[in-house]
Specification:
The complex is a heterodimer of chains A (385) and B (317). Chain A is built from 14 helices and five strands. Chain A has 385 residues and is an alpha/beta fold. Chain A folds into two domains: 53-179, abc type-2 transporter like domain (abc type-2 transporter like fold, 3-Layer(aba) Sandwich); 190-380, no CATH class. With 317 residues, chain B is α/β, with parallel strands linked by helices. Chain B folds into two domains: 2-220, P-loop containing nucleotide triphosphate hydrolases (Rossmann fold, 3-Layer(aba) Sandwich); 227-294, Protein-tyrosine phosphatase receptor IA-2 ectodomain (Alpha-Beta Plaits, 2-Layer Sandwich), CATH 3.30.70.2470. Chain B has helices at residues 40-47, 70-73, 91-101, 106-119, 135-144, 165-180, 192-198, 216-220, 240-247, 269-282, 297-305, and strands at residues 2-11, 14-24, 29-33, 55-60, 63-64, 76-79, 153-157, 184-189, 201-206, 209-215, 227-233, 252-257, 261-266, 287-294. Classes of the chains: A alpha/beta (385), B alpha/beta (317). Chains A and B meet through α8 of A and α2 and β6 of B.
Chain lengths: 385, 317
């Protein structure tokens, strides 16, 4: 065995690795930061206050029992309860602002008491659930049983004269869960949300590639050819932005074509809104890549920083885990992250079935972020030498 | 007329170009000759408008090259030293891009691209991807890429670097054709024979400074008329003792050790070469071959700068 040759090759590889210190630091820092992020989100050392599930309570009964249940739910540390009417609650669930809406129907308390004590027909409590947050629905179901039983049995066994438990001790009402999708009889398609998240993520990865390619081009003769041509920085950056946007749109279109054809994802809302969100996302992607190329130094280090930034953007954007598991401050902070708006916008235009107006916010945020990235790119891009 | 006046460029503490001035009349070919790191490429970058000088001016046909040099850039073609091609695209697609950068499109671009490919002898390879080309073909396409907009001034940064002699000859023929068409060429190289073959005038640059600027004939006139002999030895390199002995011979004006022997300069070999051969034989050294010729630009360069043009390069007869 040629030990000297092996030793020389190993030494050479280590030397080459050591030449790009920035890349080394990034390679170590990225996993630490991602691990720290997930650790924090999933409880950390236990000191962080967990996020609350946003819940709407529609109290059509307005009885002492229903008000007591409402008070209990409001006190529950897992929930953030808003009192709304039925139509407001349904609209907010559809828009993704509220994950679960609980409707306590008229005569709920009286019918529940009769069902408990006399075995009469049980009232039905309606749960309107955001189907992309199914776990939240289950948690609210459990908490509703807990608080509902406590308040109804307290009334049954202390305030009313016990008449016996003809039906046995059981939950004196039924739960009817409705998944709020684009239309009443359209079932929820879980692929729609995951395609929104993953498309956003991989479109941004394409932006990283575009930026890194630009940095690599700077190291090649082609850069001198470009610079020797009668070309202004603004023209060059504009051309790159448009090209990357078109490539991203092509990628986006094929991904969603597969989603629609193979996974039955439907654009249940505004097609124009869907297209506008797609263009906004692809514009952001293009200018994000340019910004990376303008502030990055070595291609390897830039790729590392960009991957970290993208992963954080999509994680905070809720593409990987539901945002309700985040601490409250992070849920608020995620509203400043354009990927959150991209995912929300795509959700809104697909399975939520919302109209064009629901796309305006995401499009504005994506467009504004793209302009910001472009401004940084124009400011920092090294054109003169 | 290309006019370069007191050009200066600094990278941190290092002065890459230091007060460089010369002129290139229209239609003339001027060679920038110097070793690697002499400042040739940096000078060319400033001539093409890619980089801005810290001091000094460049103008072409009376138009200054400044930060907004786009009008001037339309009249200049640059052939970068590093291949400026997209390997994954065809030759034609590359030329379409380069023409497009100068605002060309449609039939005029197609015509110019076809002419440029014909000039460099690649018209039958237009649809092939560049990565399938040989090194020499890539170099020729690299030149074609600078000609689409029919520039008046062509700046060539070591266009023959790394190519085989046959391809180099093909590139020379391309450049000679450009000369015939009246183009003004500025050509950087560290190959003496290229400068001698192609250039009307040579600017010798070393450590960022212009050492000399003259016609090839004018540069030769700076040395006393002499002939050279290259003696190749069969065995060990020339010893210091042998070099001293040869230098002491009457009529021998210069002695230099080469890779395989020695290089002698004299005004008249008829009178002095025999004595030199005897001196070598007296040292017990076998002579494998003897070549004679005239002094070259290499000798001029050494005389002007005190060192060889290429580190470790063998002197040529």
């Amino acid at each position: 065995m040629n030990i000297e040759a092996i030793r020389a090759l190993i030494r050479n590889d280590l030397r080459i690795y050591a030449t790009d210190r920035r890349a080394i630091i990034i390679g170590i820092l990225v996993p630490i930061l991602i691990a720290a992020f997930f650790g924090y989100v999933f409880g950390g050392n236990g000191s962080a206050e967990p996020g609350r599930i946003p819940v709407a309570l529609v109290d059509e009964d307005q009885s002492a029992v229903s008000r007591a249940i409402a008070a209990d739910l409001e006190q529950d540390p897992l929930l953030a309860v808003q009192m709304l009417d039925r139509s407001q609650a349904a609209a907010r669930v559809r828009a993704g602002k509220i994950q679960v809406a609980v409707v306590l129907p008229k005569n709920f308390a009286a019918e529940a008491l009769r069902a408990l004590l006399e075995g009469a027909a049980m009232p039905q409590v309606e749960l309107m659930v955001d189907p992309s947050q199914a776990m939240s629905g289950r948690i609210v179901e459990g908490l509703l049983v807990q608080h509902g039983m406590r308040e109804i049995t307290r009334v049954a066994f202390t305030e009313s004269a016990p008449m016996g438990l003809r039906g046995g001790l059981r939950v004196p009402y039924t739960l009817a869960t409705t998944k709020i999708t684009s239309a009443q009889h359209v079932p929820y398609n879980g692929y729609a949300h995951s395609f929104a998240g993953m498309t956003t993520q991989f479109i941004l990865f394409a932006g990283i590639d575009a930026g890194v390619m630009l940095l690599l081009a700077r190291e090649r003769g082609i850069w001198q050819r470009l610079r020797s041509a009668p070309l202004r920085k603004s023209e060059f950056l504009l051309a790159r932005s448009i090209a990357t946007t078109l490539i991203s749109l092509f990628q986006f279109a094929l991904i969603y074509a597969a989603a629609i054809l193979l996974f039955r994802v439907r654009i249940g809302g505004s097609v124009l809104g869907f297209a506008a969100v797609a263009v906004g996302l692809c514009l952001l992607n293009a200018t994000f890549g340019l910004m990376l190329a303008s502030i990055g130094r070595s291609p390897a280090a830039t790729r590392g920083i960009a991957v970290l930034a993208t992963l954080l953007l999509v994680m905070v954007g809720g593409a990987w885990v539901p945002s309700f598991v985040f601490p409250k401050w992070l849920q608020q902070a995620s509203l400043a992250v354009p990927t959150r708006w991209a995912v929300d916008g795509l959700d809104a235009m697909t399975w939520r079935g919302l109209g064009l107006d629901a796309a305006l916010g995401p499009v504005a945020v994506l467009g504004g972020s793209a302009l910001l990235c472009l401004a940084v790119a124009i400011w920092r891009f090294r054109w003169e030498e | 007329m290309l006019q370069i006046s007191h050009l200066k460029k600094r990278f941190g503490e290092r002065v890459a170009v230091d007060d460089v001035s010369f002129e290139v009349p229209t239609g003339e070919t001027v060679g920038l000759l110097g070793p690697n790191g002499a400042g040739k490429t940096t000078t060319l970058s400033m001539l093409s408008g890619i980089s801005q000088p810290d001091d000094g001016t460049v103008s072409f046909q009376g138009q200054a090259v400044n930060r907004d040099a786009n009008q001037l850039k339309r009249r200049v073609g640059l052939v970068p030293q590093d291949l400026a091609l997209y390997d994954e695209l065809s030759a034609w697609a590359n030329l379409e891009l380069f023409g497009g950068l100068y605002g060309m499109s449609g039939a005029p671009l197609a015509q110019r691209a076809a002419e440029a490919l014909a000039l460099v002898g690649l018209e039958d390879r237009r649809g092939d991807r560049v990565k399938e080309f040989s090194g020499g073909m890539k170099r020729r396409l690299n030149i074609a890429g600078a000609l689409l907009h029919d520039p008046e001034l062509v700046l060539l940064d070591e266009p023959t670097v790394g190519v085989d002699p046959q391809s180099r000859n093909a590139i020379f023929e391309n450049l000679e054709e450009l000369k015939r068409r009246g183009k003004t060429l500025v050509y950087t190289t560290h190959y003496m024979e290229e400068a001698e073959r192609l250039c009307d005038r040579v600017v010798i640059i070393d450590h960022g400074k212009v050492i000399a600027c003259d016609t090839v004939r004018g540069l030769y006139r700076r040395l006393p008329p002499s002939q050279v002999a290259l003696l190749e030895f069969d065995g060990a390199p020339a010893s210091d003792g042998l070099l001293t002995a040869l230098a002491a011979l009457p009529g021998i004006s210069g002695v230099r050790r080469t890779d395989g022997g020695v290089r002698l300069e004299t005004e008249d070999f008829g009178a002095h070469l025999a004595r030199a051969l005897e001196a070598v034989a007296a040292q017990g050294v076998r002579i494998a071959s003897v070549q004679t010729g005239q002094v070259s630009l290499e000798d001029v360069f050494i005389a002007l700068t005190g060192h060889a043009l290429r580190d470790g390069a063998a002197a040529r007869a």
